[in-house]
Amino acid sequence: MDWFDSFIVVFASGMRLAVPLILACLAGLWSERSGIVDIGLEGKILVGAFASAAAATFTGSVWLGLLGGVAAAVVFSLIHGYASIDQRANQIVSGTAINMVADGLTALVGNAIWSQGGRTPQLPAEAQFGAINWPFVNEIGAVPIIGPIYQHLISGHDIVTYAAFLLVPLTYWALYNTRFGLRLRAVGENPAAVDTAGISVRGLRYSAVIICGVLVGLAGVYLVLSQEGYFQPHMSAGRGFIALAALVFAKWRPWPALGTCLLFGFLDALAIRLQGVELPIIGPVPVQAIEALPYILTVVLLAGFIGKAIPPRASGIPYVKER
Amino acid sequence: MSTPLKPLPAWADVAVIPLVNVAAAFVISGFVVLAIGENPLAAVQSLVLGALGDLEGIGYTLFYATSFIFTGLSVAICFHAGLFNIGTEGQAYISGLGAALVALHFGFLPGYTLAIAAIIGAAIFGAAFAAIPGYLQAYRDSHIVITTIMFNYIASAIMGYVLVNVLRKPGQMNAESEPFRDTALVPQFHDVLAHFGITWPVTPFNLSFLLALLCCLAFWLLIWRTRLGYEIRTVGANPTAAVYGGISPARVTIITTLLSGALAGGVAANIILGDQHRLILEFVGGFGFVGIAVALMGRAHPVGIILAAILFGVLYQGGQALSMDMPKISRDMIVVIQGLVVLFAGALEHMFRRPVATLLARRTTQPPI
Fold first, then answer.
1. What is the pLDDT of residue B366?
2. A174, A294, B3, B349: least buried by Cβ within 10 Å?
3. Residues in chain B within 8 Å Cβ distance of A104
């Protein structure tokens, strides 16, 4: 059962690594389904992480930390929304700007306040989200096979993790089973039709951008309040772009997004686990190859060699009422 | 909707709007400095003194500006074809490998032909790495923005692997290649000027700067004076019309991305062959992204790009002096300014168009009393 135990350990660690990806990927999904391309996810994760660390440090409250992180990410989302919706900007340019400003500003302000090279002080345990243990963990944990799964994969995570996994069905339900979701998807495919029906394209797109801000802010909050307990410059480390890759890989659908993020998180965990390990035949594992795999897989998919990833038709195109 | 505006006069479009946009970025940056609790004017003074106060500062400023001219041109040529190349960063990184491989293995080449060959090697590697996203955009319909983002990370993984496992000298801790032989180096200005009896402080400022200026001239000739340049601009303006005019957008896309990657290779000439003299990890350090700001600010025109690159050179060099004088303002401030420039000169470029137009209209249509 040795291999099974290590599998559980790697899978549990992959699950933890997947949480910010799932949140950021769902954020991108909401935004892009409404026709707003968002390559600024990376920057907004950083903003959410920094603001949650700052708010939790000053107030000592984990919930105010969460609120601060989400609010700050929403503000950055709205800047992107204003540029994309009202100013009809190039959304790629706007997203690039968001990434740069976020990357610089979080490090700059963090350094100006705490003078630790941008790092914020370590938060006390009560200002972080703790693990929630499910009932009878130790009793069920003793059962073979089911036990470790219950103990390590189902129980023992924090509230943001459970929220992330619940947000997948919620997103699916909201997008495919509500009137709002239908309209939102329509505005990403054919805004003129939505406009003709007398529904505000602007209103729908702004709502999508705000939802995106909340979700991607949670991804940043998770990094600080659930995992590290402090903020560090550039701590998002490309997760926003991996989430973007996962979004493309999942072809802009919620359930495949969950699967892809779990796969990418698992690959990440595997790369950490296999660092310096000698495998038969291959020899030392080229860790870089596993790290680059999500990007390579996405490019191969984009190239149309495994299925075809077609974005929402109106994504990236500003809506102009009068033509 | 509100009443349509008269089109702006050409001089306002070329000069006033870009200046207003960049000014907005710097005013907001000033407020950021103020919010941190420092005096923005004192910060500007310290920054300018650090960058332009003495010959050493100027040398470093121009050294940075050289890299930014290359990345700016690389991004700008794609703008003309309507493509957004975020991959300049990765292309420049891979081009360092091309420069290093030639410099390390083509030692039989006589004299400075080795340095020239190494520069060509850099350009070829940069172009080849850009060719893949270009091909995928042209023939497989996959969006170049997403693929180039992915390729930046792939470049990072490739270079990490090559430097750690292949090029690293055995028994050495740092992931870097062996030093290059002297003939593979791009001469630095203080050495060149010493031949003419002029003393110039030792800085990494090297002859790549002249190459960058040559590339600017070639860029201008290509885009506005050749058939290919016309095709590039036509595809950028309207691909459908280009097809009607007998131009193949796919072919133009491939050629443009190849040129873009080759221009990114100039960064390797400047930093690897001109300064470091060996291949190191992460030598591009975000300069590819600065290129986006430079291209937008310079409005994809070589003259604008040179001016914007020098401005960013001042910011990078002066930022170092600034962070010494005012420890609260770390060098991250430069990234903030860069982001704000992209925001105001790129994303929100039309925000001030209406106010400026209203202002001009009011001035010119005064009732004649």
1. 54
2. B3
3. 332-339
Q: What is the mean pLDDT of chain B?
A: 89
Q: Are A153 and A8 in contact, with CB atoms under 8 Å apart?
A: yes
Question: Which tens digits make up the pLDDT trace of A15-45?
Answer: 999 999 999 999 999 999 999 999 999 999 9
Q: Is the minimum CB–CB distance between B150 and chain A shorter than 8 Å?
A: yes
A241 to B157: CB separation less than 8 angstroms, yes or no: no
Cβ under 8 Å to B: A residues 90-109: 90, 92-94, 96-105, 107-109
**Interface with B, mutate which of A78, A288, A323 (most B CBs under 10 A):** A288
Q: Do A248 and B293 touch (CB under 8 A)?
A: no
Report the chain A residue with the minimal C-alpha distance to residue B165: A286
Assess: ipTM above 0.85: yes
pLDDT at residue number B327: 87
User: Do the beta carbons of residue B203 and residue B188 sit within 8 Å?
Assistant: yes
pTM reported for the whole predicted model:
0.90
Pick from B84, B141, B154: CB nearest A92? B84
CA distance B162 to chain A (A): 10
Q: With contact defined as beta carbons under 8 Å apart, do A255 and A83 qualify?
A: no
Residues of A in contact with B36 (CB under 8 A): 108-109, 112
Long-range contacts of B135-143 (CB under 8 A, 24+ apart): B135/B254, B136/A299, B136/A302, B136/A303, B137/B83, B137/B253, B137/B257, B138/B249, B138/B250, B138/B251, B138/B253, B138/B254, B139/B250, B140/A302, B140/A303, B140/A304, B141/A304, B142/A299, B142/A302, B142/A303, B142/A304, B142/A309, B143/A302, B143/A311
Q: How far apart are CA B265 and CA B83, in angstroms?
A: 19
